[in-house]
Each structure stands twice: as C-alpha cells, then as structure tokens.
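FORM 7B: Structural annotation worksheet

SECTION A. Query
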Amino acid sequence: MTAISTRLATMRDLDAVAQLFDAYRQFYQQPPDLQRARQFMRERIARNESVVYVAETETGNIVGFTQLYPTFCSVRVAHTYVLYDLFVKPEARGTGAGRALMLAAEAHVAKTGAARMELSTARDNKVAQSLYESLGWVRDETFYVYGKSVA
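SECTION B. Predicted structure
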C-alpha cells in the first residue's frame, strides 16, 4: 500500500491542483475547462482566499486535494470554515488519501481556533458520506440548504 502524506499547497503545485480541480468539477457535471480551473485555483492560492491541502504519495505524486474557505458563523459568533472541495484521483481511491485530507483540514481548522467546519455533498455520493460519517461528521436533519444563481 502506498503511504499518503498531506501538506499545504503552494504555487508550485498549481498545475497538479488545477487538473484535480477540473476533474472534481467534471464529477459534478461541469464541462472540462482546465484553463478556467487553473485561473480559479491560482487566484485562490495567490490571494490567500482559501486553504488548499494536497495528498501525495511517497514519490511526490499529488493524488488528491481539498479546499477550505474561511467564513463566520453569526449564531456562534465565531470563525468557521467550509470544506467545499475534496477530490481524489480514481486510481488513488482506497489508499486513505481522502481520509488524510479530511484529517489535515480538521487539524488546520483546530489550529486556527475556528469553532466549526461544514460541508455538503451530493445526496447520491454515498462513498463520501461514508467517509465523513466515519470521521464523526453528522448530517444535518434540521436545516434545509437553498441556493440561487444570480446573473
């Protein structure tokens, strides 16, 4: 079994992260657009607008990433994070990369003193739900989540 480690992404990782981000978007039914994915990730990393961790093998092959966005919770009057993106290459699934990324994100949030992390996933993404629940995440049964596109 391949050992997986995690670390914060840097600009040197941009090409690998952009490819993973583009594949992540395709998983959610978006058309491929590597240039747009690269530009988006470049801006997030350069502007420190998100926290990006990568999972890599012993040989330095980046096989997954997660992206956290800092935000606030008015009810708790506290800093929180939204774990918005998590993706592992299909050939690296089952290696523990997803779990390692989740634990790295959790450690980051704890280190910053934030009160909470939140995430959402597709209802049919049973594999991800199983991972989250195995790590102690609890599905919300109280609130509905709404969205609206604004042109």
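SECTION C. Observations
Residues 4-134 form a domain with the Aminopeptidase fold (CATH 3.40.630.30). The first helix runs from residue 14 to 27.

SECTION D. Sign-off
Analyst initials: ____
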